[in-house]
Design goal:
Radius of gyration of chain A: 19 Å
Oligomer: homodimer
CATH superfamily of chain A: CofD-like domains
Structural class of chain A: alpha/beta
Chain lengths: 318, 318
Amino acid sequence: MSWPADNKVLALCGGVGGAKLALGLTRVLSPDQLTIVVNTGDDFEHFGLPVCPDLDTVTYTLSGLSNTELGWGRQDESWHCLETLEQLGGETWFRLGDRDLAIHLTRRALFDQGKSLSEATTAICAHLGISHPVVPMSDAATRTIVDTDQGELSFQHYFVREQCQPAVRGFRFEGAEAASPSTEFNKALEDPQMAAILICPSNPFVSVDPMLALPGIRDRLIRNSAPVIAVSPIVASQAIKGPTAKMMNELGLDLSALGVFRHYGELLDGFVMDEQDRELVSDFPDPKQLHCCNTVMQSLQGRIELAQQCLQFASRLG
Amino acid sequence: MSWPADNKVLALCGGVGGAKLALGLTRVLSPDQLTIVVNTGDDFEHFGLPVCPDLDTVTYTLSGLSNTELGWGRQDESWHCLETLEQLGGETWFRLGDRDLAIHLTRRALFDQGKSLSEATTAICAHLGISHPVVPMSDAATRTIVDTDQGELSFQHYFVREQCQPAVRGFRFEGAEAASPSTEFNKALEDPQMAAILICPSNPFVSVDPMLALPGIRDRLIRNSAPVIAVSPIVASQAIKGPTAKMMNELGLDLSALGVFRHYGELLDGFVMDEQDRELVSDFPDPKQLHCCNTVMQSLQGRIELAQQCLQFASRLG
């Protein structure tokens, strides 16, 4: 693949699915060419510690530390603190591993030293040997609130404690209106060398929409000269992981790649969907906006290939 | 030993040495007969978590969970969080074990629910199966500051980070003047059935003096009709554990049980010292104030026996 050395890429990324594509991108682009902006709408305080699930999934994935068996958290994890917490009558619905705890403690300490979330993330990435820039969407707190048939729930209560069982009616992003995009997110959006903006195959509602809810971001993406390309997290009417499909059903949306495309609307210049969904192509308004390839990243090679496919498609569109 | 069922005992207790005698007392007194008041001058916030070393040592000791190999912390401890913290560039001078962390997280959560340190301690003790009341000296923060030849140091920085190396010049107890004794401490001091007040063999300067620095406590102990009895933490001019002896040297005090007795001064009605120090008896102003016995609690039986000796002595004095 030939991607010009001067051309830059911005990846908007949630948790697991997004992190896989982000990993692929780090293998085909230099640290100077890539900025990975990560959703922080899932973040919450637990036991006074700042927990940033998407940032941590991305950093664990990029540093080779992710727990591939569990599909979340760190590898070689132990649960002694959590076991003891249970004996002490503490809350254990959020599964804090002993090693994972260290990243939250580190962030707490960096915050207490006056560091921003961006600075804390940079420090953590440096210690984990991650050379590509990973930045939070904002240094200000934005909290995804899920409106459900059981009332409003904070995201982690919905996602982890209630295991996505309540039916979803909508979302709001508390604090988003007042949250400035992080410096590096702003910088990437203003970079004249920006040549592709990739929306990773993350949950559109709770991983990507929180970023789009930040003041001005949606408009700035639309106006950006770089093509904005989303990779569908829905393949053959199913989500690879997580509650995206369940949410689309509950929201009365078309449970398909086309439903995802429609959700993003005018934001998109291009859309990457899986070969398994090729039959849907004729339902889209403009086939030139589409690229079909294997999007199910089952190996590192699969992640790299999807990254290459996205960049080639961006070159064609750009 | 016959200790009247109506007679109550108040134990003032620091960390390891004090906890041993407290354990002995729990084996000879009912939960109704005993109140264990614990020093909180060592407490500090670490990674945003409230760490209460003396309270934790007492609760681990009373629940049979203390790490007898290390001499501090919990048994069956693992260090995965700390190892990871080190990899992330975090502070590791305070050795937080994975299981130990859970007690600090639990306390954080209870504080965040609006519970006081007394309430949090009661909740933790209940979960650990401790039926004797263990209470902090105060619900307000009091922080021991050590004045050293390297300037003022917070207690844990002096004790753990600097491993007691700096030479001590004095102490102050930040916040003590404004800190009320805890409800249960007050209640014990006002209890007409109080028949013995035992100052456990803890460090006089940093475990006991913080309690005496609380408003009115010293006077109320002196005026109390129950005899106030201290057990010497110095045996044969040595401290069983910790920096008591080093501190006495640096403060220019007589490094002996007599030096401890003089430090407490008019507070004491009785003083328990080790048989090894029997030759010192003639140096004391009043031999009736003295009781010599084995104070080196090398086994559970030794702890129980010292508890019994203290109560018998209190009966004689009272």
